[in-house]
Amino acid sequence: MNVIDTDAYGIATAPDTVRFERVLPGPVERVWAYLTEADKRRQWLAGGAMELQPGGAAPLEFRHADFSDETPPERYRDVNEKGFVLRSRVLECDPPRLLAISWPGEKTESEVVFELFPEGSEVMLVVTHKRLPGRDEMLNVSSGWHAHLGILQAVLAETAMPPFWARIEKLETEYRERYSGV
User: Fold this and answer.
1) 171, 175, 147, 172: which is closest to 161 by C-alpha?
2) Alpha-carbon torsion 120, 150, 61, 158, what sign?
3) Residue 96, preceding bond cis, omega within 30 degrees?
4) Other C-beta atoms within 10 Å of 47: how many?
5) Are 48 and 61 within 8 A, CB to CB?
6) 178: exposed, middle or buried (Cβ count in 10 Å: 0-12, 13-18, 19+)
7) Strand, coil or helix: what is 37?
8) Following CA atoms 179, 146, 59, 74 in sequence, which dihedral angle do they give, to the nearest 10 degrees?
9) 20 beta partners
10) Which of 11, 24, 121, 165 has an alpha carbon 20 to 30 Å from 145's alpha carbon atom?
11) What are the tens digits of pLDDT across the range 117-130?
12) Which residues contact 119 (CB under 8 A, 6 or more apart)?
């Protein structure tokens, strides 16, 4: 198995798009389950039952306290404890290869595309978040996906969980520097 790189940064492929690539322990059906099944997705991102068809409901029930016992930064404390729900919907679904969902925001809706590529006993996961409304949202989304994907890698590899909240502020600073020319 490849060494799991939880420090691989997302790449800004356009001013409103970030792309992440992660090699994960397979098989592809197992990784697909962690993207689509509420109980498995809750372990690294957010719960919520998905209707796996275009137009289907895909509420994402975020409750970071479910997978991290760290004290969050002050600005995230309220949402960490109470949680919040994004009323997403499925845009495209081709099991176990592709899942695209809407990502509601305050002013506009962006889109997240998950693509799975089997590579022997491993799976390349590509996450592309596009149509982000501005630089601040790019920074927030990039650091969030980076930290969440680190949790997913640990869950799938059955290794110790990396810190979540301790990384968020550091990652925001690092992405701010990385995206200074974007």
Assistant:
1) 147
2) positive
3) yes
4) 19
5) yes
6) middle
7) coil
8) -80
9) 127
10) 121
11) 999 999 999 999 99
12) 23, 26
Assigned token pair, 101: 């969902």
Bridge-based pairing state of the strands 57-62 and 109-119? unpaired
The partner residues of 12 in beta bridges, in order of sequence, read 18
The tokens describing 143, both together, are 């650091």
CA 167 distance to own-chain centroid: 14
| Amino acid at position 65, single letter | A
Q: Is the pLDDT of residue 52 over 50?
A: yes
One-letter identity of residue 24: L
Mean per-residue pLDDT for 105-128? 95
What whole-number distance in Å separates Cα of residue 125 and Cα of residue 142?
Answer: 16
- Give alpha helix (H) positions in the chain: 28-36, 38-41, 77-82, 135-157, 165-178
Tokens at residue 76, please? Answer: 């995230």
d(CA 98, CA 36) in angstroms, rounded, equals 11
**What's the mean pLDDT in 31-60?**
97
